[in-house]
Amino acid sequence: MALQNIWFLLWGLLWAIYFITDGFDLGIGSLYPFLGKSDADKRTMINAMGPVWDGNQVWLLTAGGVTFAAFPLVYAVMFSSLYTALMLILFALIIRGVSFEFRHKIDDPKWTKIWDTCIFVGSVLPAILFGVAFANIFRGIPFDQEGVYQGTLLTLLNPYGLLGGLLFLLLFLQHGSLWLSIRSQGPIHDRAVKTANGIWPVLLVVAVVFLIATKFATGLYDNYLAHPVLFVIVLLAVAGLFGAKVFLSRKEIFKAWVASAVTIIGCTFFGVVGLFPNLFPSSIDPAYSLTAHNASSSPLTLKIMLFVALFFVPLVLAYQIWSYQLFKDKIRTEDMMY
Amino acid sequence: MDALLLSRFQFAATTMFHFLFVPLTLGLSIIVAYMETKYVRTGDKTYLDMTKFWAKLFLINFAVGVVTGITLEFQFGTNWSRYSAYVGDIFGSLLAIEATASFFLESTLIGVWIFGWNKLSKKAHAAVMWLVALGSHLSAVWILVANAWMQSPVGYTIREGRAELTDFAAVVTQKFAVVKIIHTISSAMVLGAFFIMGISAYHLLKKKNVDFFNRSFKTGLGFAVVFSLVVFIMGDLNGVVVGEKQPAKLAAMESLWETQKAAPVYMFAWPDEENGRNTIEIGPIPGALSLLVKHDFNAEIKGLNDFPKEEHPPVLITSFAFKGMVGLGTVFILLSIAGLFLKDKLVNTPLYLKIMVAAIPLPYLAIQLGWLVTEIGRQPWIVYGLMKTAEADSPIAASQVGISLAAFIIVYGLLGLAGFYLIARKAIQGPDLDGDDNGHGAIGQPLKTT
Known about the structure:
By secondary structure, chain A is mainly α. In chain A, about 75% of the residues lie in helices and about 0% in strands. At the A-B interface, helix 2, helix 3, helix 4, helix 5 and helix 13 of A face helix 2, helix 3, strand 2 and helix 13 of B.
């Protein structure tokens, strides 16, 4: 039914927006011990995310909430199947979230070190695990007819899953280093630009390997081969990737960041469109797979939620963009509230 | 220890922990916004100092509230997958709306508030805090509508073993939800008010920053007087709707075993749940329960023995939590009214000040007891009359839940200690009135870097 298909795409869109927003926060947090040489550097990195990280994180809650509302069976089976991975992501996000607020409150290096560790672990773990989770969704998860997961955390850490984790990490490192470049100045800015340049070739290689591996590990290309026009999504991701490199070499950092966002959106939709109509495929038997058509809520719910989404998503984007505009200039010491 | 019991403990522990922080966020967001508005209107610097000081405490608290909230959204799926599949249409929608309509508002604008002192006009900056308060309160509204649906399911039909939405308006506007919302939000105002009054009392006892803390105390006092009364009135209305929709819960709250007209309220009752009676009953006030719940002295109230035994909620916890909450609610009214009489000579009434310092944890306790009443009193149902909690958990290994529960206890334990330590430390330190705060970041001032 059309409503289910619309919601399938909206679901993908919400995840994409989460990845292009909190993605750079997770990226900066993952780079934290490497680029943050002095306390001033670390504070710059934190404050680069400072005004926006919390609003960014809500896109995750929205993506999860929408999964629950539009595809409750998927929410139920996915969250219980991926229990351990999700708990790890959760604890990581918890320790990251309080670190920004707690870190500067006590002038003691032992205290500061605790929260520095929390920022790093709390960023790098979700970055990798989101990739692992989605790669496994593309590949198919071993759950049975009752929706009972027949694996463990280790099941998810298969080569394709780990490749997905690596891809997401690199995408976020790229995205984060570009954001940091936009908002910082001086030596740390230069280091951030250098990082973005250094990550790019690694990202390119891993992205290509991932595209190839996807052919062997998943059935994602079936939709593309049946409707070749869909390959434009892959082209979009590729254009974004090369665009980032071109803009970076021209020192047009903001455009490079936008191109990086396009890459992430392209990658997300590559997966989502390839999955369609599956939302949570079963690797035990395709008959058990949860799809947009067998796992959704009632038409009335989908309709009401569509009105809610069409009203609130543009509104939220508008005031979030406004808040981004407010804080687009380079960070100075006097701006550092964290 | 099976997965079900562990999941119950985990849900209870993580929700109660989250709700240690939420009420203060709700209450302080309004009071801080009010203080900042007073500053904008009067230009009086003390109001600005008050805004900045109380906001410091607010922000520490806000951070813990936000992160512990993520847990809850995940947990319906991770640990209560059968519940989620059953109620997704309704409960899932309400959660999704909570995220899009409210979480975005508070989380986006809090960043603007923290970082925007020098970027926005005074008026705009104050308005931002009101929007943060609005976001937090809208979030409370949506989650309470969702909880109200669990207690009193409306606007649905059962199709293919799931609850399907048929009437969204019915879900959102039902009396049970409205009463619950006003009651809970008011209790958060009381907590915020007593938090401010208690900390102010601490400094007034030491005669430090007397003008600052006199004004802070009086600001809190106004909210305390109004909202402690509103909580109480709404509490009574809550009893009415519970009597209508959840008669077994009501009977458990009052430890009433036999159906009767002119049903009494007992000052004290010790239940014997095995044998369906009270071992001890002290001070029955005849007809009081009928009067409170049905507004008719002679109305018949159903006793627990009229319900199948397996539909009895745990009576001891439910009734004691209820009585405790009501007792505390009464104390809050009395302390607030006392404050009205003493507000212009606080510094000279050390006994009252000491009581108010000691009273800081009491609204926290009352609110936790209230949640115990409503959630434990709803057992064995997860959706009252439709689905039992025992049928709702995820089909996962007990060991997984055991590990996550242990992790929550450790992480939340440390988080709670750190958070409350930071709040207490700043509260005791007092406001930074000369603008530098030992280099630790007076709000709106640069932080020192090494």
